[in-house]
Amino acid sequence: MSDVAAMGEEQARAELARLAAVLQQANAAYHGADAPVMTDAEYDALKARNAAIEARFPLLKRADSPSDQVGAAPGQGFGKVAHSVPMLSLENGFSPEDLGDFVDRVEKFLGAPPGAFTAEPKIDGLSLSLRYENGRLVQAATRGDGETGEDVTANALTIAGIPHQVLDAPEVMEIRGEAYLSHADFAALNAAQVARGDKTFANPRNAAAGSLRQLDAQITAARPLRFFAYTWGALSQPLAATQMGAIQRLAAMGFPTNPLTVLCDGPEAMLAHYRAIEQSRATLGYDIDGVVYKVDDLGLQARLGFRSTTPRWALAHKFPAELAWTRLLAIDIQVGRTGALSPVARLAPVTVGGVVVSNATLHNEDYIAGRDSKGGVIREGRDIRIGDWVQVYRAGDVIPKIADVDLSQRQGEAFAFPQTCPECGSPAHREEGDSVRRCTGGLICPAQGVERLKHFVSRGAFDIEGLGAKQVEMFYNDADLPVRTPADIFTLASRDAASPLKKLKNRDGFGEKSTEKLFAAIEARRTIPLDRLIFALGIRHAGEVAAATIARHYRTWEAFETAITRAEPGNADWNDLLSVDGVGAVLVGSLVEAFANPNERSAIDALVAQLQVQPVEIRAKVDSQIAGKTLVFTGTLEKMTRAEAKARAEALGAKVAGSVSAKTDLLIAGPGAGSKAKEAEKHGVTIISEDDWIALSGLK
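Predicted structure:
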């Protein structure tokens, strides 16, 4: 299990392919065959590893990414049921910090505290959807892949806790919950299997899934399945105004609901209930693997909405995964493309949550010293030293981390974090407010040079087929056809043609056809979109999203290059870029600094001379009155938060800026509008109220 932070692009691509295959097999075994091939903790860790690699290499994300999949395709022995409302999975959390982050995100999105949350045990069973029409159960379906499930109506009718007829129900009502087996019933079922000479089930979840997914409903009827209802899909009328109210109404209709579901008024109460459930877990009589939190107000749930596979208004707080102790053998310092010195712990191999771990992240020098990024004490101030006996954990974190140190077994001296780059010997400085120490060598540092080139040819940047991480390292160190800067890539073919003897096609790893394909792939990338070029430059803080935002603002390389060259703190070009929503002073300063650096600028100019940079085409939605317009929000928005307003405006084709200029089309002013309103009047910008904007945009 290699360190995600240390991965190159080719290694990441291979690992994503491996994880897609492993997780697809695990999904099929778990959801389709009811015979899991790994533990839940192992599955969570692999899925989190996949997500972390995708976060680091977003353009390597596969079409069959496990991040976008829910469950598994329905089996062949059942009829198919298309879910009118998709059965999504939940976002996972693994620590009190994850819970706090969840509550903060909800509050930030809404612009106000959301009030109460419900907290309920997360049942480890098989998801089941029950459709009622005019109060009668007409269809039951498994989750399947979230969009299409298996028709198990005949089997669901045999489960004692599921009502066949309900009173006082909406005309159409789709109730969702979990089918499960109690520990006692599971033990009795396995005893009966042994008595018949049949194969026993691995755990209650497998037994429940296998029982529900029987082609013969009589087999299901002979097994004591149970059911908890906790949510819903399609409804012709709302059940209640709140999550708890809806659960109470389901109970009144005769559905089994979990009595341990409670209302909590904030993170402290939610965490207290989580801990109480965790302590009583062994006495419940059925399997759970965490606690689910949901925003109680259903109106706020609707506003928060959904991501691609998870709702924003819910979190599954999983119980901790396994911890393990091992010896810290060494601390290595790796240098990234921005010069960051990243410490990595080399460990005596140890199994944690079913995975053999030999590396762990140490974040930065403060973390090693027992401090957080703000100078606060962590691990009660215990530092980390080579030779220490350390506690390692994974939980939902893909990259293993060190949780604690056993001081009773300490032998080594305090670790001295290097003040110079281990790759080039240049001074390694740490800017005020930055938790990371960085090499100042820039392009003379081979580690930065190689990593920058790897970034340049990565999927989100130039994406040159045949020029991956291994090839970059080879060419960087090649004496005859060196590639040390991005421009060198585009002169590679001409230099090869001019070489009388040492042709690329005659080298190990290359032949005539592979050389021709590489040169053709490079030639095809001479024409490149502006946003990809800006991202490919590898300028610190200029990530993929920021590059796209800046490209939309300037639209052409010439406009971008001219503005960044002229920009100085406080002048018109600086302020113009700073006015772009999502662009801050740190990013602006980083761009200006890169273009002002003679070595950096020379490399950029040499590269652009080899390229044809495509301008950005603005595609506006034809059915929106604000499409293509530049909007600025000021004052206090009363109907929604800025984040929600911005998301809605951009979805309708508008551009949202952070400050008013002559290019602004509309200023949406709420109570408390100040200098921006005066600036709008100065430039003759139309000022409208929040209600006027909502009406103009057709929003509700």
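Summary: The first helix runs from residue 9 to 32.
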